[in-house]
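Lab notebook, bench 4. Still working through the backlog of constructs that have no structural model yet. Next entry is a single chain of 157 residues. Request: give me the structure tokens for it.
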Amino acid sequence: MSTPTEISELETLNVSQDLQKGLKKVADSDDLFMAVGRIKNGRNSLRALISGEVSTEGINCSDFSDRKYFSFGIELTGEEDVSCIEHLDKQVEEALTANNLTGYEVLSLVKDDKIYIKLPAKKNKFTTRSNIKMEPKKYEDSGIFRGQEVSIIGDAT
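Model written out:
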């Protein structure tokens, strides 16, 4: 597990293999419009620790292509975290160019000092760990509120 500062100090990132799989899924599907790839250091997925304050009213749930997607926002309280994540965006762009994956736009993870966390779910549990108890079946009753201190651990994608 790495903090944004530790991730931004990495020499090389590998996003090409997972991104190429994501691009193939988009090309093969009428429902998908965005490719997502895991950010790796060598062969290992990066697990990131993000801390801040909840910036949304609870967990958001949206339906798209017969699937539920969960997320919530975090306002980053450390200026260093904001600049490190913005640096990570540049590292991802460089990795794409180095692997001849051009013509794609890297969407910034940070918007107005906030980062929106996708909460993947498997077997009725979120795979992102947090100091706040959260369940997909009871996401509306999660007790998460705007301004609440939160720390999460999840894969960098």
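Notes after review: The longest strand covers residues 67-76. The chain is about 25% helix and 30% strand. Flag for follow-up if needed.
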